[in-house]
């Protein structure tokens, strides 16, 4: 419980980095060999992945790098949040470079407007353009401490909406501004926005009022952006993962949700692994998904099929 409070406090009390500080904290590797373009593209795509230090974001950043994208890894902290050994051994951007890919890291609070603006600016100054934004960073206060709505502290609601929903609005706003200003990708497309929502963006979750509302906002905004910017050839889709074995998942299982129960709810092989989710953002940013926009894609081992 003490540790939980500590995690909660760290999201509220740390100030966002200013632009010069942010700039100084970016690390890059210009000497990396040129990998392949992202599948279906003739030019390497530049991707921002938020929440890249742990869990799904880490797996998505690696999947993009393997497909040849230049990746801006973005997180509150360069260090993985969890005690998952593979995640803490080496930071995501470093791992990508070790494997021959191109990646930079930027310390960013995704709920902060100026920090998100700077993130896009710094990515473009490093990689010259921005093609893909994955709004992945998110929190679940209620995974640690599930409560019915009448007992939910207002601070939990505000923090959850800030990190899970406001961040998607901000990231999308500044990414689209850049995508509209730059030359289109050689494919003729201007950009790909991929939001990591949740099954709880579409269904209810007991004891999770703030989380459900925040993910409902993400799923709804996905449709709105898709309609608004279809004329500009900017696609916007969301992935709605089922329970996936990351730091958030281990907090949920520690707070009383049984692993066996969770297993039963995912008919196809039980709760997922980050790699099970990470393939979908690659497809969504490729020519294989050329006519796909405004979709909320449930990648959940069958959880919501019941
Ligand atoms: N794991 C699941 O079961 C599951 C299921 C459905 C949806 N999701 C969603 O997937 C996304 C990733 O979750 P995960 O399971 O990988 O969690 P995680 O806790 O393993 O990783 C989340 C990452 O986001 C970062 N982050 C948190 N607040 C931030 C902030 N203000 N600014 C920048 N970075 C911040 C954390 O430092 C961490 O590295 C979240 O949006 C989550 O809601 C997860």
Describe the structure concisely for a colleague.
This protein has 306 residues and is of the alpha/beta class.
- Percent of residues in helices comes to 40-55%
Strand order of the largest sheet: 3-2-1-4-5-6-7
Distance between the termini: 34 Å
CATH architecture: 3-Layer(aba) Sandwich
Can you say what the CATH homologous superfamily is?
NAD(P)-binding Rossmann-like Domain
CATH class value: Alpha Beta
How do the SSEs run, as a string of H and E? Answer: HHEHEHHEHEHHEHEHHHE
* Radius of gyration of CA atoms, rounded to a whole number: 18 Å
Instruction: Give the tally of β-strands.
Output: 7
Give the strand content.
5-15%
Count up the domains.
1
Could you report the average pLDDT, rounded to the nearest whole number?
Answer: 87
Question: Structural class of the helix and strand makeup?
Answer: alpha/beta
* Coarse shape: globular
The hetero molecules present are:
nicotinamide-adenine-dinucleotide
* Uncertain residue ranges: 1-36
Largest sheet descriptor: 7 strands, parallel
Question: Mind sketching the topology for me?
Answer:
Blueprint: H1 2-13, H2 19-25, E1 46-50, H3 55-66, E2 70-75, H4 85-89, H5 92-98, E3 102-107, H6 113-127, E4 132-135, H7 141-144, H8 154-181, E5 191-196, H9 209-229, E6 234-241, H10 247-254, H11 259-265, H12 274-284, E7 296-299
Parallel strand pairs: 1-2, 1-4, 2-3, 4-5, 5-6, 6-7
Helix pairs in contact: 3-5, 3-12, 6-8, 8-9
Bound molecules: nicotinamide-adenine-dinucleotide.
